[in-house]
Specification:
The protein is an all-alpha fold. The protein has one domain. It is built from 2 helices and no strands.
Length: 116
Amino acid sequence: MSRKGNNSAGILAGLLAGAAAGVILGMLYAPEEGKETRKKIKTKANDLKDQAKEKYGEVSEKVKDQYGNISSTFKETANNVAHTMKDGYDKYKDQIVSKTTDVVKNVEAELNDLKK
C-alpha cells in the first residue's frame, strides 16, 4: 500500500514539474514582451501551485482514510484475539481446577488409607 502511494506521489510530482517546465519554456520562446511573459509565467505558476495543493489534499485524505481503515481493522483483530485468549484461559483454568481438585481428593484418600 505505501509503496503504491509513494509511486503515485512521485509520478504526480514529476508530471507537475514537467508541465511547469514546458509552460515556462514555451512562454519564454513566445514572441511577446517580457512584462507580458512574466505575467503569464506568474499566473501559470500560481495555477500549478493551486493544482499541487489540491492534489496534495486529495492524496492526504486518501492516506487518512486508509490509516483509519487499517487502524480499525487492527483494533478489531486485537479485540478478537484478546477475547479468544480470555475464553481459552477461562476454559483451561476450569479444567485445571477440576483436575487439581480430583488429584487433591485422591491424595487425601491415599493418605487416609495409609493412616488406617
